[in-house]
Structures are given as structure tokens and as C-alpha cells.
Predict the 3D structure of the following.
Amino acid sequence: MEKLRENFEIEFQWRAFPLHPETPEEGLPMKEIYAARIIDISKAMARLKKVAEELGLPLGERKKTYNSRLAQELGKWAETKGKGDEFHAAVFRAYFVDGKNIAKTNALAGLVKAVGLPEKEAREAMQKRTFKEAVDSDWDLAYQMGISSVPTFVLDHEAVVGAQPYEVLEQFLLDNGVKRKGSPRLSHKEKDSVVRSLITPLHFENR
């Protein structure tokens, strides 16, 4: 994301996605999540780890999956404080590397403090479910767009699904009319031809 932001006239907007919304607060074993599918979990995790290594991303050995709904709502709150990217990154690390239960308010409060946001306000937002409707709206949009997995990157009604190397996302932006920084500015007519569309969990937007 940072490299794309450095090189292109682009902004990111996070969108929440309902991945296993039925997961209880205490979480579920990975084996139970994939029980109904013909999937070898060990092989699937090995492939995921290989991709993570190729992309330079840390990845822990997760035994359980946890409900991310409350983390998504708190992410919306963090965005209003100008710390959306930092909070989302902290949640990803807590979940995928450290194996923390991100459905727990105390775990989320700890992440809030770690990125320099006020814990008291965060707890109030979680208790009152202040951003419930915002996340509901994102979920509805994902259903309408037929998105079924994450990450999915969407721009100009085109999509790229799954964790991708920088070069793939770079070409995706170029193919959809996004200019590199330092390139001649688009005319108003050209800007109008670039349809801004939504993305789950990210939304690219031309400046």
C-alpha cells in the first residue's frame, strides 16, 4: 500500500467484509471452519505461508479463527481519528502473527493504545456500537458486488482478488487509468471517464 501511495495519485479506503460472521466471540478451531470443505488445512497454510514470505509479510501459526466484526467497527472509528491505516495494520498483526482474539474488547483496547489513540473513547465506541451502521453498509455493498473473498481490490469496476505482488497491483492501476506521480495531470474530461468504485477491503481512488 505504501509503495503504491508513494508512486501513484491514489488514495485507499478500507471496506469491511463479512468473513465467517457466525464465528462466536471465543473463536473456532481452524479445522472446524474448514470441516465442510475438501481442504487439507496444513497444505493450505503452507501455501499461505509461502505467499507471505514472497511478499515479505509476517505470518504466525494460527490454530483458531476469531470474529472480526467489532474490530471492523473500531476500524471505522480509528479512521475518523486519522489512524485508520495504523489500526488496521495493528489488527492484522495481532490476528495473523500473534494469534490474538480480536473479538475481545480488551485486546482491541490494547491495539488502540499501541497506535496512540484514546482508549476511553474506543471503549465507548465499542460499547455503544457507534459504527455498527457503517459496517452494515459495507457488508451490504460486498453482497451486492458479489465479493466472496478477501483481499479484493476494485477500481473502475475491475477487480483483483487475493494477496498480490506489487507488480500486479501496479499494472492493475495503470490498466485502469491511474497516473504515476509526476505524470501530466488528467483533464476534467479524462477524470470523468475514470469511474470510482468501491473495494473490499480496500478502495483505490484517483486524486
